[in-house]
Amino acid sequence: MPNEAVTRILLEIADLLDLEGVKFKPEAYRRAARALQQSPEETEELVRTGRIDQVPGVGEAISEKVREFVKTGEVHYLEKLRAQWPPGLLELMRLEGVGPKTTRRFYLEFQVKGPEDLERLIQEKKLEGVFGFGPRKIELLQKALSKGVSAAGASPESGRTPLPEAQQRMEELLESLRESRAPFEKLVFAGSLRRRRETVGDLDLLATSSRPREVMELFTHLPQVEEVRLSGDTKSTVVLTGGLQVDLRVVPSQAFGAALQYFTGSKDHNVHLRALANRKGLSINEYGLTRDEQLVPAPTEEEVYAAVGLSWIPPEMRENQGEIEAAQEEGLPAVVGDAELKGELHIHVPPSIEQEDLLPWVEELRAMHLTYGGFVVRASEVEREDRTLEQLRNALPREVEGVRVFLGLEVTLDAKTRPTTPAGADYLILRPPEKPLADPKESARAWTSSPTSVAAMLAHVDPGSLASAGLEWKDLLPEEGEENSLPLELAVRHDVVATETALVRGASRRSARFVLSGAPRSPEELPRLLLAAGIARRAWVPSHQVVNTSSEPMSALRNPANPPSASPKGPEPPKRSGSRKQDGPRT
DNA sequence: GCCGTTTTCGGCCCGACTGTTTTCAGTCG
Ligand SMILES: Nc1nc2c(ncn2[C@H]2C[C@H](O)[C@@H](COP(=O)(O)OP(=O)(O)OP(=O)(O)O)O2)c(=O)[nH]1
Ligand SMILES: [Mg+2]
Ligand SMILES: [Mg+2]
Predict the structure, then answer these.
(1) Fewest C-beta atoms under 10 Å: which of A101, A300, A432, A567?
(2) Could you tell me the sign of the dihedral formed by the alpha carbons of A177, A179, A181, A187, in that order?
């Protein structure tokens, strides 16, 4: 994460201000931290160019502290707060069910400076009979202490689950709940998973039902549920075996739209939207819209947004990063919709592949309504084969059951040149070398600015691979105004989102083009392509900058972005009725 | 501390669940 250091500073200030008991300021610091975390530009760059206070939620005071941090590596204000409150208090505050108010009391009334002190206090029965601490609360404190706390200063990303794994867990959970015969009508996922964040903190589920008690009962008794944190008529929180937390909200069906809007978030998006509604004399909650004391249910998300004069906003863009202002002016970019994707271009196969091996892939491509597959062999492996690349190409059909078959060759780049396409290959997958380059910037320029007479894309541009070559993401981007750039791969692998949204968003603004890929290892993993589409939407990438929305991908890989052909069909809001399944990959 | 389509000062999103406090505070989503 690029802005991690400054984010941690601001979050620590927020926690300490919470201990002080001040209102609004802690949230202001957290809001600013969350905004910087998502910024497509690095803090240093924003400071250097004097644009730091343009970040939403960053005003004069926070700008000044960020500038100080960039300059000196310290923030005096934070040091002052640290001197007031022992560091162990921040650990205490992270205990389950323990917040700033409780922590403050422990410190001021009992001189408790950290978890060990609290443990002793409870052992010595000093909390018994104290106002506000009944037997149940003491029991819960003990339980929380025994579970331990995450160390203070841990990365904000730690303890979160990578998107592809979270999606997998969610599919399994949905399956279990359906099998449980719980009496719900709709059941969908929400939260950061629906927003396709690179990592998710927990799984958020929304159901509609007229019998919420029974739904909750079955949910909290699923076999994979290890612990029930809390459970009421409309909301339950459980922990699955393995430690993943799941929140379930159950609402009446006429509240589905409002509830889905609420539960999809993000929090900052919700707060902004609700404040906007208030200025228009409305109030929004998870059940609907209130005007003149009258609650009007909202069956669809579109109705919620329309009530405050906005068009529907794709979930992935709901991060309070300017999308609300854009939706007010009908100015949301035409981001790529799932249905616009025409193929997958990064299907790794062994060079020994034969025609019949393509069939399971083709079957799944067809099921996803895709019209081509790009099968990729490594140059190093082809060399060891008896068969030449040309013979391989000739052994494979150009089309199977209406699905076009392309052959890609994966080539590791060397310092200077961009290779031409050898006979047999339809296109090249270029990857950075694994050893550090002598002059990375010069090499990057050579690769990305060569005339694009060959169909090629630059893959394996994850932070790790770039670092081993000594490359930086920004070296790969088109020059200002350059149209003719080498497309970059945006991949969601089985284990991780390989490219960061913030970086992609920055690149997209400079007209970089992208090839979306789910890096499938087997046909069942092809639907992961849709997660890559979600990441592209998070980064506000317009469809016309996505190579695999083109029905002629080889010319798209060669040429600058073709102007969008027909009227592009972007993402669509969920339908009001019908039993259509929620969009989403199965992997 | 931030911010504005009635405001540059005065508000700041809104609700569920729990334990304990007899009427609600704290924490969390
Ligand atoms: N209006 C409002 N909605 C909230 C608030 N906190 C959370 N929500 C909504 C929006 C969130 O996306 C949704 C789920 O909450 P989570 O804590 O699970 O957050 P989210 O899934 O966005 O991120 P995560 O990856 O779980 O950390 O609930 C809040 O303070 N106010
Ligand atoms: Mg969540
Ligand atoms: Mg949650």
Answers:
(1) A567
(2) positive
Q: How far, rounded to the nearest angstrom, does the alpha carbon of residue A228 sit from its chain's CA centroid?
A: 27
Q: Print pLDDT tens along chain A (587 aa).
A: 678 999 999 999 999 999 999 999 999 999 999 999 999 999 999 999 999 999 999 999 999 999 999 999 999 999 999 999 999 999 999 999 999 999 999 999 999 999 999 999 999 999 999 999 999 999 999 999 998 766 656 777 888 999 999 999 999 999 999 999 999 999 999 999 999 999 999 999 999 999 999 999 999 999 999 999 999 999 999 999 999 999 999 999 999 999 999 999 999 999 999 999 999 999 999 999 999 889 999 999 999 999 999 999 999 999 999 999 999 988 899 999 999 999 999 999 999 999 999 999 999 999 999 999 999 999 999 989 889 999 999 999 999 999 999 999 999 998 777 777 788 999 999 999 999 998 898 888 888 876 667 899 999 999 999 999 999 998 898 877 676 689 999 999 999 999 989 999 999 999 999 999 999 999 999 999 999 999 999 999 999 999 999 999 999 998 665 544 445 567 888 766 654 567 667 55
What is the Å distance from ligand 3's center to A152 Cα? 22
Question: What ipTM was predicted for this assembly?
Answer: 0.97
Q: How far apart are the first and last CA of chain A?
A: 25
**Beta pairing, strands A225-231 & A187-190:** unpaired
Ligand 1 centroid distance, CA of A269 (Å): 10
Q: Residues with Cβ < 8 Å from A95, sequence gap 6 or more?
A: A115, A141, A144, A145, A149
Quick check: A60 CB within 7 A of strand B? yes
Q: What is the CA radius of gyration of chain A?
A: 26
**Chain A 486-515 residues in 7 Å CB range of strand B:** none
Q: Measured in angstroms, what separates residue A132's CA from nucleotide B21's C1'?
A: 7
CB-CB neighbours of A197 under 10 Å: 24
A81 touches strand B (CB under 7 A): no
- The count of other CB atoms within 10 Å of the CB of residue A415 is 15
Instruction: Give the ranges where A148-237 is alpha helix by DSSP (H).
Output: 163-179, 191-194, 212-220
Which residues are CB-contacts of A298 (< 8 A; sequence separation ≥ 6)?
A255, A257, A258, A261, A287, A288, A289, A304, A307
Quick one: tokens of A388? 């030449």
Q: Measuring CA to CA, how many Å separate A230 from each of A26, A270, A533?
A: 26, 24, 35
Nucleotides of B under 7 A from a protein CB: 1-3, 5-7, 11-21, 25-29
Cβ of A468 near strand B (under 7 Å)? The reply is no
Cα(A326)–Cα(A580) distance, integer angstroms: 29
Closest by CA to A1, choosing from A582, A499, A353, is: A499
Token digits of residue A157: 């990303």
A584 close to A550: Cβ distance less than 8 angstroms: no
Q: Which two tokens stand for residue A200?
A: 């998710």
The burial class, CB within 10 Å (0-12 / 13-18 / 19+), for A58 is buried
Q: How far apart are CA A376 and CA A407, in angstroms?
A: 6
Q: Report the SS3 class of residue A408.
A: strand
Q: What number of CA atoms fall less than 13 Å from residue A188's CA on the CB side?
A: 24
